[in-house]
Design a protein that fits this description.
With 164 residues, the chain is mainly β. It has two helices and eight strands, in the order E-E-E-E-H-E-E-H-E-E. Helices cover 12% and strands 43% of the residues.
Length: 164
């Protein structure tokens, strides 16, 4: 069984992006407090990368901001790629299956302004944000030059009916 349940705060505002076949996705990091304090009495956090697709991605990008508390369920998803120097890199993400709002809308708005101190962990998913303004339809797209999987050479087609 591959099941993950997390409750944590977003480290940055999720940015909605689209695949070349126009499928919405969001990658974000959740800071999850550890259940114990360190030797100095401070609580530490783990920074966990999450990816979600389609309607869930659109909802999260629309309603969540940095510092908002989220409860989510998903599964661990691993992968690997060769970086531009030929080194093998490994990735671990939580592939989102379900999520819940943990705070009210007012509490989410307040928490996003109160959590400016949440550090943003560097991830291999720091894509450039490009805006496509054609047809007055503004969308974010992945900058393939910074895509860690671009060197594989093969394209991936995502069928919208795959999960139906």
């Amino acid at each position: 069984m591959n099941k993950v349940v997390l409750v944590g705060r977003l480290t940055a505002k999720p940015e909605l992006r689209y695949t070349p076949s126009n499928v919405a996705f969001v990658r974000f990091t959740v800071a999850v407090n550890r259940p114990f304090s360190n030797k100095d009495g401070n609580r530490e956090a783990d920074f966990i990368n999450v990816v979600c697709w389609r309607n869930q991605a659109e909802t999260i990008a629309k309603y969540f901001d940095k510092g908002n508390l989220i409860s989510l369920e998903g599964r661990i998803q691993t992968g690997s790629y060769d970086d531009k120097d030929g080194n093998k890199r490994y990735t671990t993400d939580v592939a989102l299956e379900n999520f819940e709002f943990v705070e009210s809308k007012n509490a989410r708005a307040q928490s996003s302004s109160n959590y400016d101190y949440i550090p943003e962990e560097p991830t291999p998913y720091d894509y450039q944000n490009n805006n496509n303004n054609s047809n007055n339809n503004q969308q974010n797209s992945v900058d393939v030059a910074n895509d860690p999987f671009a060197e594989f050479g093969d394209s991936v087609t995502i069928d919208d009916n795959f999960l139906d």
